[in-house]
Amino acid sequence: MPLSSNCNQRSMEQNDYEKADTLCANILKNEGDRLIDQKEWLNKYKGLYSKFNIQPGKLPAIANCNFKGIRYENIATFHKIYKNTLDDFTIVDTWKQVDAIAHFFEELNLSMLVECLKQDYYNNLDYTDFIYQLAVAFTEMEFRGNLKTRTISCTCKQCCRQQYFFIGETDGSYFDLTFVLEKEKVIDIYECEESKCMVPEEINLEKRIWIDPNKTPF
Ligand SMILES: [Zn+2]
């Protein structure tokens, strides 16, 4: 299969791999920088990614990180993180917003939720509080052994809004969130306080994790 992306580049030497591997090691050491502004991070390292990216037609992109029997781990790891971030932004740009948000809840991917959520208030909390409480709730979900969740979505028969249960893959802990849509945009995500919304039978009510700790029933 022809690897067209490499056609117009001079072939790389061992020295190129070594230098790039050191550069990638530094980028990985400061990985937190990515989260400050992910789009800027993507732009900044676009050239580096392209140089070590192999895109075989429609197959997934792979890292060009092996040379003369040596595998350059930092290049491989950098490539993986860059590609995942790029894929996440493709989701933001091409999926319906509500589906993208649900997807990032499934992945417990807070940094991408930050990219999707643009309202001043959610769940009666101001934006910063809401994101903070999400971080706490995601940590609790992970602490209980769930690195991903799956979705059950249904229209609540009481309030006619779309309800999402994000259920932990391991122990069944869950978030119960109601999405409020206006013109196909999510304008609020809230937890039904009056417990009027429907709960599917398979849900274990004792395993609910609340985003807003003040709403936890005693
Ligand atoms: Zn409802």
3D architecture notes:
It is a single chain. The chain is of the alpha+beta class. It has two domains: 14-93, no CATH class; 96-207, Nuclear Transport Factor 2, Chain: A, CATH 3.10.450. The chain is built from eight helices and ten strands. The chain has helices spanning 14-29, 32-36, 38-44, 46-51, 73-94, 97-106, 110-116, 127-143, and strands at residues 53-54, 62-63, 66-67, 70-71, 121-122, 125-126, 149-155, 162-168, 174-182, 185-190. A four-stranded antiparallel β-sheet has the order 7-8-9-10, covered by helices on one side. A hairpin with a 5-residue loop joins strand 8 and strand 9. Helix 1 (14-29) packs across helix 5 and helix 6 runs antiparallel to helix 7 (110-116). It is elongated. Zinc ion binds at residues 156, 158-159, 161, 178, 192, 196-197.
Summarize the structure.
This protein is of the alpha+beta class.
SSE topology sketch:
Elements: H1 14-29, H2 32-36, H3 38-44, H4 46-51, E1 53-54, E2 62-63, E3 66-67, E4 70-71, H5 73-94, H6 97-106, H7 110-116, E5 121-122, E6 125-126, H8 127-143, E7 149-155, E8 162-168, E9 174-182, E10 185-190
Helix pairs in contact: 1-5, 6-7
The protein binds zinc ion.
CATH topology of the largest domain: Nuclear Transport Factor 2, Chain: A
Instruction: Compute the average pLDDT.
Output: 91
Number of domains: 2
CATH class of the largest domain: Alpha Beta
**Main beta sheet, described?**
4 strands, antiparallel
Strand content: 15-25%
Q: Which stretches of 5+ consecutive residues score pLDDT under 50?
A: 1-8
> How many beta strands in the DSSP annotation?
10
Q: Count of DSSP helices? A: 8
Small ligands present: zinc ion
Rg computed from alpha carbons, rounded to a whole number of angstroms: 21 Å
Spatial strand sequence of the major β-sheet: 7-8-9-10
What order do the helices and strands follow? HHHHEEEEHHHEEHEEEE
Residues in helix, %: 40-55%
Structural class: alpha+beta
Oligomer: single chain
Approximate shape: elongated
